[in-house]
Every structure is written in structure tokens, then in C-alpha cells.
Amino acid sequence: MTAWYEKTAHEIRDALRQGETTAVEITQNFLDRIDAVDKQVGAYLQIWNESALEQAVQIDARLANGEDVGPLAGVPMSLKDLFCTLRGNTTCASRMLANFESPYNATAVQRLEDAGAIFLGKVNLDEFAMGSSTENSAFQKTRNPWNLNCVPGGSSGGSAASVAADCCTFSLSSDTGGSIRQPASLCGCVGLKPTYGRVSRKGQVAFASSLDQIGPMCKDVEDAALVLNVICGKDPLDATTADLPVPNFSKALTGDVKGLRIGLPKEYFTESLNPEMRALIEQAIDVLKGQGAEFMEVSLPHTDYAVAVYYIICTAEASANLARFDGVRYGFRHPDAKNIQELYVKSKSEGFGPEVQRRIMLGTYVLSSGYYDAYYLKAQKVRSLIKQDFDRAFEQCDVILTPTSPTQAFQFGAKTDPLEMYLSDIYTISTNLAALPGISLPCGLTKDKLPAGLQLIGKPFDEAAILRTAHCYEQNRGFDMGKAPIA
Amino acid sequence: MEFEAVIGMEVHVELNSKSKVFCPCSTNFHAPANTNVCPVCLGMPGSLPVMNKDMVDKSVAVGLALNCTISRWSKMDRKNYFYPDLAKNYQISQYDLPLCYSGYMDVESDGHVRRVGITRAHMEEDTARNTHTIGNGESGVDFNRSGVPLLEIVTEPDIRSAQEAFDYLTQLKQILQYLNVSDCNMEEGSLRAEANISVRPKGSTPFGTKTEVKNVASFSGTMKAIDFEIKRQIQVIRDGGTIVQETRGWDADRGITFSQRMKESAHDYRYFPEPDLVPIVVDEAWELRIHEQQPELPNPRKHRFEADYGIPAYDAMVLTLTKSMADFFEATVAAGADAKKAANWIMGDLQALCSEAKRELGEEVLSPAHLAEMIRMIDAGEISGKIAKEVLAEMFASGKAPKTIVEEKGLVQISDSDALRESICQVLADNTPQVEQYKAGKERVIGFLVGQVMKATQGKANPQMVNELLKEELSKLS
After folding, report:
1. What DSSP string runs through A161-210?
2. Minimal CB count within 10 Å: which of A303, A428, B33, B372?
């Protein structure tokens, strides 16, 4: 029997269209795989066996009728448990929402369902997407399929682990400061964060509204383009989505990078970059050079401020976004509260984990009277400067290439100092601050047999350029990443 | 020492948009509790606000009517505080860049005009309503009102008396009603007024410490509360005390304000720009479109009525109190009625009928052409003024044309002198004592005799003719 779970979305789509198999067989194959390996990995918080098979039966019936079943028909995938779904619970890996059922589907979820995707279930994350290792989940540990002693990265650790362990073809994720790209890098996946405004955030439980963006975690670049085609575009229910024409991203994968100007920001290639990572990135640069791309040094002078700016803006927004979880209308309500004040304090103190509480307090602080100008306002100004850095760099080049993560996957408990953990995202945060598209894709294994990732950053709404570059590299890198050693 | 009051007003107006400001739910918050709600106005996870353009249109209209500058570029902000009636625990409002700013209103008060500066008018969402009457020691929250469009209009501290504050509120309400942007129902909370009051020695510039009077259910209550508060503050100062900056409520029964100081520390709302919404850009074309749709406002209309129709200032003032009445008046005149007569009927009988029936004057209630026709019939002597009152009541009740009513009810005025003479002779024969009194020189008795004739003819007699014919017949007798 074919191991469908090893296949990509486009391979499964083609096999179904050619009648080689059925959606039910494929879905069952994935459910069996989850059953076999997810106990070790711990990616899934909810597995939707029944509804997944029901969806598959319907796809098969529609295929038999010769209906147009959509570009992702019969493709089994997972959802980061940060997206509102009518099925199951929407927990955000938080005690606060452990039993919460959303009354509606997120726009991106609905678009996937309309495109025929099959939902295998929802996967783990750092609570409310706050973290870089998925260790902040209130429910369970998710392990890196390449080395079960290591974290999968975060916050979309469940998404990355479920893709790397072949427990889905792709996963719908979100990225606020690197939450798609960093775990993709640590688990050897392709992770795409589109331009802010490209994909509707409606139904994504908000962490930091001006930074959050939904994107896919995939097995190859072609799948990333395929999924982006389905989820992107203007949504009247999200005022921040761009009303721009949407290209067919699959058609952007021409394989041609001749004359493409790729910038290497000198601030990203410093002494602090791990030499082994640097070597793998340089090999990738050589591959693209071989395909005709031109490389140049560019400068992003305000890079050093990015982490500080990010942790002011994202916590400020989070402090307001998470205020609604108060035990009044839904979610965890402390049973012993005697008055409204106690209801708030007790419900939040027990409903939220320590990292979430830390960020709410930080955000409340930076917005407080007397501190607003020194922190929030100044951070917004520096954010503009960071954006200007990219505007200037993009006058010289078409795409920027950087490492995705300063390190390979690290061991559980290795980073106990929050500040040290925050530095896991130093290469990815600026992209969110500047609202640019970024993609992480695997560029080899370290000597510890752990994946390394490179990041490509594009101009606003030019996902096509980074997808084309990534695809060209992927097709010409000259080695196979292989599979995570898990069975 | 003589004191002067310094008053600034903050008015919250619920705009009458069909849907809420950030979601498509109906703004009818009288529906059964929590029926006009959705994930957005309940603050459910993942929900996002989308700005209702109608709210911007209506807010711009108010801003223009109050002579404000309209921001070409403004934004929404989050105002953070915790309360169960606030779905997201932040209110989407406007902080440093309000949609409308730097306006004024010329308030006519007691024969003088006070120019009251409008600091700003900004958009925000209304909160839900808490109820504490459901028993079991439980409180309920009704989110029907959550997200209803709210415009907050703030004045400069330019008002100097309770009467001026009352006149400001009355004239503001009149403008809002002319613009048809709110039903301005204070009892239902669609218009809420708060006054900031301080006093200072007359002639001095620095402001005194202010108090804020909230939760007054009517304009007249607001006026009384301000009056009380001014006197109270002056008394406190005269007694050597100091004014405490605080919020005070109004006890309408006892006619006093009282401290509402709660155990709250100073609020820090931690405003910051709302990242879920894009900036509001009202370009010149948008502003011009609203400007062109503006109706003539009450003040200019009042002056035009005096000039164009030659009616007294008082009439013009009354007729322009509401747009519907002013429109009705003009339509009646356009249909051929004499302006002063139309004014008298509208301000008198018609207004009485409307207030009795609790209906607002408008074409749905009565056709202006019918009123014009009725006035013409009186002028032509076809009906008496007295009968006209009856006809008008019937027109108001049934919507029928005055001619139809007169025919159906047989109310045509008797102007036939032979017929009238017959009734008069009968009356004179039946009332010999009065006739004798008349003959003795008591001419006032003629009023009684006219009344008897009118009674005999069931009011249908032309009173002018009755008068003349009576005198004729009486002179024959003497």
C-alpha cells in the first residue's frame, strides 16, 4: 500500500484526479500514521477521525459525480489550534479556552474547507502563540520529529512537527514574530508568512493584531504556493486585508532566477551567527548563484532594535487583545470568585500560563500613562525606521536572503531565561515589523542531524518572488533532506 | 464677591444607523436581551471590527452642522478598562485625532447669542447594559446595545449659566433631529448629557475646580442640577471650603446633586491606535457629498421664514422647532395657503392634535394640500372657523379631504339668508326676555342670541351673516 502520508498536497491532488486512489483511503492512511507516531511527537491536541472521514466520503462522492472539488480536494491537513473552527474546540493551548467552542469558522479555515481540504485535527502551540518552543502549551509537550529530545520550535511547533512527522500534508499556521518560519526551520519544513494583509485574520485568535499573519507550513514550495492561492485575498470581514489582485502563485514557480538580485544584509551575517549555520547558508547561496542569481551586500541598520521594538508592540497589543478573556461570557471562569474584581483576577491568574501573564503585564506597562511615550510611541517610530531600512534595501535588490534561526533545534528546558528565548526570533521579527512576506525552507542538516533553514524576504505583496526563488533553490540544491527518523 | 459659572458639556448621541458600528447586527436594542448580537459585538475570540460607513457619514454631517473642521485623516483607538458591559474590555473610540474638531454653535439664549466652542466630536461604540434585577444575587448583561454607534460631542467651557446649558442642549438636539441622525430620546439613553461645572470670581481668568454632573434624565433636570451645583459651589467657597474634583449624581426628587465618588483610583485608559481598523480618510469629495445633502438648519430657516413669509419671529421659532413641522408649514403655503393662517392652524389646533395622538406632524399624518384647502374654504365662507376645527380633527383622524368630510357630514355653512332669517325669527320668538333687554340698550345680549342661532343650525350658520341678519331683524322689532 502506498504511504500517502509521505506525499505532498500536489501529489495527492494529482493522484485523486487521476483516480489512483480515494480520499477515504488517503485520509485513513493519515489517521493510521497519526495513530502510529503522534504518541511520540505529541503534535495533535484534537484528532477529528470521524469528521475527517466524513469529509473524505463527500469528496469521493463529488469526484465520482465529476464535480469541481476544489484545488485541495482530499488533501488531509492540520490546523494550529489558534484558528476558530466550528468543529471541535478552539483552545489556543490555554486553560482559559480548554473547553471553548467557536460559533464560526475562521475565513482561512472556511476557504480551505471550500477548497476540499480535509481537517485531521488541531495541533499544539505555545499558549496564545506566545513562545518559540511550544513549551508554553498548557496541555502537552510537542517533540521535534528529528530528535525527540528537542523542541520543535514555536509557536507553531505542533504544525511543524505534524508536517515533519508526516502526520499531515500541510498545516495552517500563524506567524507574529517568526512563529511559522522558526519552527519550519527547526523541523525541516517550508514555512511561508505572507505579507501583512494578504490573508484574512478573521477567526485567528489575536495575539498582536498589527503583526499576526496566517500562512502555510508545508513539505515543499509548490504546496506553499498552492495553499496560499486558496487562503489569500481580500476579506470584507477583515479591514486590514489588502484589496489587491491576487496572482496565481503556482505559476510563479518558473525555476528561473537569472538576473534576480538577492541582498545579504550585513547585520544578519555577523560573528553571532553559528558557523555551521553560516556554512549551510553559504552553500545555498552558491546553489542560487549557479542558477544565475546575483548577490550583493545590503544594510538594515536598525536591525539591533528589532527585538526590543517587537516585544513592546506585540505585548502592548496582546494586553488589550487578551483582556476579553475575563470569565464573564465564555472560557474559564473561576468558581470561587465573590465579586467582579475577584472574577477577573482569579480567572486570569489561573486561566493564563506564566508567559502569557508576563506579556500582558509588559504590554500594560508600556501603554501606561507616563511610559507610553518612552516605550510604545518610541517603538512605533523605530518600527517605521526598520520598515524604511527594507524599503531602501529593496531599491537595490529583489529578494533578501538570511538565516531563519540563529540555532538548530534545542533541547527541552534549554532556554529558561525569557530574554534568551526571545532571541530565537532575531532573524524573523523584522519581517513582521515591516509587514513583509518571508519564507523559511530547509537548507541541509547540521552534524547533529538537525535541519537548518534559510529565509527569503520579499517586497510587500511580492510573495511570487520569494516563492520562485525558494522553488528554484529547492529544485537545484542537489541533496535530499530525507525524512525525520521517526516511525 | 460676585461669582461666574464656567460650564462645558459632553453629550453622547446614539446615531440611528441601521446596523452597529463594527458589525451587521441591528441597532434595535429593545429587542429581547442578547438577540441582536454576533461574535464581533460579543467580543468573541478571533472577531474583527469593520467600520460602518453610515456612522462616518452621519458624524461628518453633525460635524459640518457644528461648524467643525473634518479630519482628512483620523483613526480609531482602543480605550482599555475592565467592566462586564464592555465586551472586549476595551472600547473602540477616538483619542487624539477625532473625526470633527474646532467647531462652534451660536446658542440663542434669553435674547442674547452665546458662541459655544465645539472642541471635538468623536466616534465610538456604545457598551452593553448591565442589569442587577434578575435575582439570586446575579447580574445580567444584555449585549444588544454593545457596538451601537455613539458620537461624543464635547464643548469648550464657554457656557455661563444653567439656562445657556439648557438652550445649548435644546438647540443641539434640534440640529441632530434636523439631520435625522438620532432619535435623541433621553429617556431611552440615546442622548446623554454630562456637565462640567466650576465657578470663579467674576472677571478672573483661571478656572475653578470642576465637578462633573452625570446621569440626569432630562434637559430640564440638567438645568436644575447645574443651577444647584453652581449655588452649592459658591456656598462652599463662601464658607471657606474648597471644591473637590468629583463626579456627582442628580437626585431629582430632592433636587440636589450628590457625590458619586467611588473607590476607583484615577483611570489610566492606556489608549493606543486600534490595529484592526484602517485609518479613516474623509477626502474633499466625501465631505462635499455630505455637505450637499445637508438640510437647511433650524437657525437659518427660522430667519428665512420671517423674511420670506412675513410671519412674526415667535411663529418662525415655533414652526422651525422640528424639521417635520417646518417642512409641513412650507408645503401648506406652497399649496396656496396664507402663511399667517397656516402658521396659526399648525401651531394651534394641529399641534394639539399631534401631541394628543403622540404623533409627529408630517405628510403621513395629514396632507398639507388638505390643510391649504380647508383654509381656502374658511376664506370663501364655505365653512366656519368653528366647523373647521371639527373638519381638521376628522382630516387628522381619517386622512380624508376637507371637502369630502364637509359633504359626508353635511357641514356646509348656511349662507342662505332666507333660511337663516327663518331660524333667527324663531330664536327671537323663543327668547323674548333677551330681546327686551336688547331693546333696553343691553347690546351685549346679541352674543347670546347669535349663539342660540348657531345652536339651532347645529353650527352650520355663517356667523358673520347671522350677526348682520340678527341686527336687521332686531331693528325691525324696535
Report:
1. HHHHTTSSSEEEEEESSSTTHHHHHHHT-EEEEPPTTSB--TTBPPS-TT
2. B33
Q: Which of B312, B313, B311 shows the shortest CA–CA distance to B332?
A: B311
In a domain, A308, yes or no: no
- Tens-place pLDDT, residues A445-474: 999 999 999 999 999 999 999 999 999 999
Q: Specify the pLDDT at position B470.
A: 86
Computed over every residue of chain A, the mean pLDDT equals 96
Partner-chain residue, chosen from B47, B48, B270, that has the shortest CB–CB distance to A364? B270
Mean pLDDT of chain B: 92
End-to-end Cα distance, chain A: 16
Which CATH number do you get for residue A120? 3.90.1300.10
Does residue A293 sit within a domain? no
Of residues B48, B82, B275, nearest to A326 (C-beta)? B82
Cβ contact, residue pair A324, B45, below 8 Å: yes
What H or E segment, with its residue span, contains residue A402? strand A399-403
Residues 422-481 of A with CB under 8 A from B: none
For A177, the domain range is 4-254
Least confident of A240-254, B155-169, B331-345, B460-474: B460-474
Q: Residue A26 falls within a domain, yes or no?
A: yes
Give catalytic status of residue A179 as yes or no.
yes
Nearest Cα residue to B80 out of A204, A367, A333: A367
How deeply is A181 buried, as exposed, middle or buried, from its count of CB atoms within 10 A (0-12, 13-18, 19+)?
buried
Per the CB < 8 Å rule, is B82 touching A330? no
Our count of domains for chain A comes to 1
Distance CA A413, CA A425 (A): 17
Record: fold of B417-477: Arc Repressor Mutant, subunit A (1.10.10)
Q: Based on the residue annotation, tell me whether A137 is a catalytic residue of this protein.
A: no
Residue B336: Cβ within 10 Å count: 12
Q: Pick B272's closest partner by Cβ from A103, A201, A367.
A: A367
Least confident of A322-326, B259-263, B351-355: B259-263
Which among A238, A239, A323 is the nearest to B88, CB-wise?
A323
Look at residue A131 and give its three-state secondary structure: coil
Where along chain B do the CATH 1.10.10.410 domains lie? 417-477
Query: For residue A225, is it within any domain?
Result: yes
| Nearest chain B residue (CA) to A236 | B50
Among A102, A314, A328, the residue to mutate for chain B (most B Cβ within 10 A): A328
Q: Which residues pair with B249 in a beta bridge?
A: B258
Q: Is A51 a catalytic residue?
A: no
Tell me the nearest-neighbour CA distance from A480 into chain B, angstroms: 39
pLDDT of B174-231, one tens digit each? Answer: 999 999 999 898 888 899 999 999 999 998 999 999 999 988 888 999 999 999 999 9
Q: Which of A7, A78, A80, A159 is catalytic?
A: A80
Handedness of CA A302, A308, A311, A312 (dihedral sign): negative
Decide if A376 touches B, using CB distance below 8 A: yes
Q: Which of residues 127-156 of B touch A (CB under 8 A)?
A: 141
CB pairs under 8 A between A and B: 97
Q: What is the mean pLDDT of residues A330-352?
A: 95
Cβ contacts of B39 on chain A, cutoff 8 Å: 103-104
CA-closest candidate to residue A20, choices A29, A12, A10, A31 = A12
What would the DSSP string read from start to end of A353-374? -HHHHHHHHHHHHHHSTTTTII
- Confidence at B263, pLDDT banded by 50, 70, 90: very low
